[in-house]
Amino acid sequence: MKTKSSILLIYTGGTIGMKIDPSDQTLKPFDFSQILEEVPELGKFAYRIDSLTCDSAIDSADVEPGLWQRLAGLIEENYDRYDGFVILHGTDTMAYSASALSFMLEGLTKPVIFTGSQLPVGVARTDGKENLVSAVEIAAARDGEGHAIVPEVCICFGNLLMRGNRAKKISSEDFRAFRSGNFPPLAEAGISIRYRFQDIIRPADWERKPVFHKKLDTRVSILKIHPGITPQVVRNIVCGPETRAVILETYGSGNAPSRQWFIDLIKEGISMGKIILNITQCIAGSVDMDLYATGKKLSEAGVLSGYDCTTEGALAKLFFLMGMSESNAFVAREIVRNLRGEITK
To answer: Which domain holds residue 247?
Structure first.
């Protein structure tokens, strides 16, 4: 059994990899091959830590599914060489990327931990060093049999380790920028790292290699229900010719307008073969379309329940399932199943 863990850091972009240029006082990406100089605390671990930087740093707001495919490919290429992976990523779309990778990497036996920061590593009060150190320690952690303690795609941020497809960014200012409203953190970093072993997904077969899914179908639209929404807006999104699936962000436990024109447009979309998935706008809580009459009308029209999935998780799950099959019946059947711990049923 190996005694020295090996970790691959993958830098995609984001605040954590920025440093103030003394010549013009602007923030610029630093050379991640020199990461131990920037975060010397990492040198105190008895780990082999290598780093890899994407071709060019990507602003979090510019993240596209192509990045997820590249990340899946990088992890696949390096899977046998490392015990864990830490992905440094901008915070704005981190929950989308972590959700996507959770579906694209099936049967993980090693940790894939996303982290980042609200302040650059070179700033005196940065949260980046603590986030990165904790992420690396968790990615390297193994049990007495040499197996990874957390073989999942996760987000490590603000002392919390959250399942990637359960997390959501809730603050642009606080160091605890992410929250997992419907599922407890998998670990909390204090004086020691306290794991919730009972909630961690572990593989049935540690020797079986993961399946890396890279095909995605992104023909998904999101319709956020709001007071004053118009028939034209609903029609454009629900019945749009380029849309294969729609995420309906509803009120509370899955409620939407009960007006006939709205229900008729939902039925029209479903009659066209669209997949319509009901997700609550609330940070915490679950869709229950049997609870109120307005939700019942959606269910009767053929809308599917997203249960307590996040919007980020639902989007990634649809991209993944639609990429697997052109059959909407297959997608509709699988979307309501718990595939990677993304929903509670």
So the answer is: 220-335
Give SS3 for 271: helix
For residue range 123-169, list pLDDT tens digits in order. Answer: 888 898 999 999 999 999 999 999 999 999 999 999 999 999 999 99
Domain count, the chain: 2
Q: How far apart are the first and last CA of the chain?
A: 38
Do 205 and 238 belong to one domain? Answer: no
Whether pTM exceeds 0.85 = yes
Q: Which residues are catalytically annotated? A: 15
How much of the chain is in helix, strand and coil states, percent to nearest 5?
A: 35, 20, 45
Of 195, 212, 229, which residue is a domain's last? Answer: 212
Same domain for 196 and 288?
no
Per-residue pLDDT tens digits for 10-56 = 999 888 877 777 777 666 677 666 677 778 888 888 899 999 988 77
The CATH number given to whatever domain includes residue 304 is 3.40.50.40
